[in-house]
Amino acid sequence: MRVLALDTATEACSVALFTDQGIAGRFEEVGRAHADRILGMVDAVLSKAGVRLSGLDGIAAGIGPGSFTGVRISVAVAQGLAFGAGLPVVPVSSLEALALKAIGNGARQALACLDARMGEVYWGCFSADAAGLLAAASPLRVGPPAEVRWPGAGNFRGIGRGFAAYPALAALPGLERESLDGRALPDAREMARLGAVRLAAGRGIDAADLLPEYVRNKVALTEAERAAAAAAK
User: Fold this and answer.
1) 139 preceded by cis ω (within 30°)?
2) pTM for the complete prediction?
3) CA distance linking residue 184 with residue 187, whole number of Å
C-alpha cells in the first residue's frame, strides 16, 4: 500500500508518504505560503522515495477544519493530483490527525482543539479503537472555549493549539495536564496512516466528491458582533 497525504489547513504545511516500509514526510510552518510550498514538498517526498504518482494506491487529503483558504488549497491540490493520476482520495479531518498523534503516544482518549479565531475553537473528541487508531466520540464542533467538554467518563489527553490560544481550557475536568500538548498542529503523517487503513477498507472516493470540512459557515465577525465582543471584554 502506497498512500500520499497532504495538508495545508492550518499554519502547517505537511506532506507524507505511507508505504510498507514506513512513513516519511515533511512538515513546515509556512505562514501563508502554503500554495507556494505544497507542490514542491509533494515532489520532494515522492522523489526521495523513488515513487511516482501513478504508483500510488490513493491520496489522503486534509479537509479541515482550519483556515478557509488553507482548507481550499488542501482539497484543490489533492483533487488535481488525484485527477491527473486516476487515484481515489480519502478525506481526513485536521482534528482526527491531531487526536491520532495523541493516541499514537499512548492516550486512550483525546480531545483535539484548534484555534478558530473570533473567540472560538474547533474541537472534537476521540477514543482509541481496537486497531490502535481512533473512533469519534463526538461530532466536530466550533464554539466558545466555555462550551468545550469531554462527553464521557475517564481522563483524556488534550492536544492542539486551541489549548495554547485559550489557557483556561487546561482546567477542563479529566484533562491529563502533565501530557497536554498545546502547541501541536495536524501532520500529514497521521493522515497517511488513517488514509492507508481507509483505502484498504474500500473507503476511497472519487476526487470530484472530495469536500472541505469547514465546520464554521462564516469567516469573519460582522461589525455589530465585533462591537459586542469588545464590549464584553
Assistant:
1) no
2) 0.91
3) 9
C-alpha to C-alpha distance for 49 and 188, rounded to whole angstroms = 16
Local structure of residue 135 (DSSP, 8 states): E
CA 88 to chain centroid, in Å, comes to 19
| 224: enclosing H helix or E strand | helix 223-232
For every residue of 5-63, which 3-state class applies, written as one string? EEECCCCEEEEEEEECCEEEEEEEECCCCHHHHHHHHHHHHHHHHCCCHHHCCEEEEEC
Instruction: For strands 3-7 and 58-62, give the pairing.
Output: parallel
20 & 78 share domain? yes
- The DSSP element (H or E) to which 140 belongs, if any, is none
In a domain, 227, yes or no: no
Q: Judge if 109 and 154 occupy the same domain.
A: yes
Q: Which residues contact 128 (CB under 8 A, 6 or more apart)?
A: 103, 107, 108, 109, 134, 135
Cβ 9 vs Cβ 65: under 8 Å: yes
pLDDT in tens, 97-117: 999 999 999 999 999 999 999
Per-residue pLDDT reduced to its tens digit, 73-94: 999 999 999 999 999 999 999 9
CA atoms of 92 and 4, how far apart (whole Å): 12
